[in-house]
Amino acid sequence: MTSATEGRRESKRRETRDALIASATSLFAERGYQATTIAAIAAGAGVAPRTFFGYFPTKEAVLFWPFDVLAANLEEALSDGPDDALTTLRTWAHAHSAWFDTDFRDLRRLIETASQENHTVAITGLLFIQRLSVAVASRLRLDLGVGPDDAMPDMAAAAAVAALTVALPMGMACRSTDGPPDLSRNLLDDLDTAIGFARAGLEATRPVRA
């Protein structure tokens, strides 16, 4: 297979994925999450229903696709970046903060409504938070030079990442449809506070764990 052929196939895959996302977004807004079927999403994208599953394993996955991208970006930064885990988390949040005040607002309203209709949607949102926490904890273990039996990296990561739930409608800190007027600033302020607590906890236990 030539590189040109591979390039065309990859371009076609991106086009199909984008079409599925656009179809799902439009149908979710028009019909609601619960009433939208995978068959309808596929039809709106001009593909067969079985093609949908070549791009997304579930309907929840296409709803949460931006979060999958965000999580992958953080995982890559934690894997390759020069900074420690908590600094990397903060840098990642700042880099994406504008999204929370723009495109995310419509998605947030949709997720809130869908969560009320289908508990699997709420669980998917919480799994996103868990994914971030696991990634941060894994890097913290490397930063601290501790093994899997040390629970402190898990606790510190959970404390830091929990601040991000202010952005999610299923989060304990958020109950209004639109969230705070300046969602990104609230998110970053809460994250900085949480990271401060996490760092203090790590420092406080260092002599005990050394």
Verbal overview:
- Helix 1 packs across helix 2 and helix 10 packs antiparallel against helix 11 (183-209).
- The protein has helices at 3-31, 38-45, 49-52, 59-63, 65-80, 85-95, 97-100, 103-117, 119-144, 152-162, 183-209.
- The protein is built from 11 helices and no strands.
- The chain has 2 domains: 1-57, Arc Repressor Mutant, subunit A; 58-205, Tetracycline Repressor, domain 2 (Orthogonal Bundle).
- It starts with a helix and ends with a helix.
What are the defining features of this structure?
210 residues; single chain; Arc Repressor Mutant, subunit A; Tetracycline Repressor, domain 2; globular; 0% strand; 2 domains
Strand content: under 5%
- The total of helices stands at 11
Q: Profile the largest sheet.
A: none
Order of SSEs, N→C?
Answer: HHHHHHHHHHH
Query: Could you give the count of β-strands?
Result: 0
Number of domains: 2
Could you please say which CATH topology of the largest domain applies here? Tetracycline Repressor, domain 2
Q: Helix amount, in percent?
A: over 70%
CATH class term of the largest domain? Mainly Alpha
Distance between the termini: 55 Å
Query: What's the rounded overall pLDDT mean?
Result: 85
What structural category characterises the helix and strand content? mainly alpha
In CATH, the architecture of the largest domain is: Orthogonal Bundle
What is the general shape? globular
Contiguous low-pLDDT stretches (5 residues minimum) are 170-178
Keywords: DNA-binding, Transcription, Transcription regulation
Pfam family, one: TetR_N
Domain HTH tetR-type: 14-74
GO molecular function: DNA-binding transcription factor activity; transcription cis-regulatory region binding
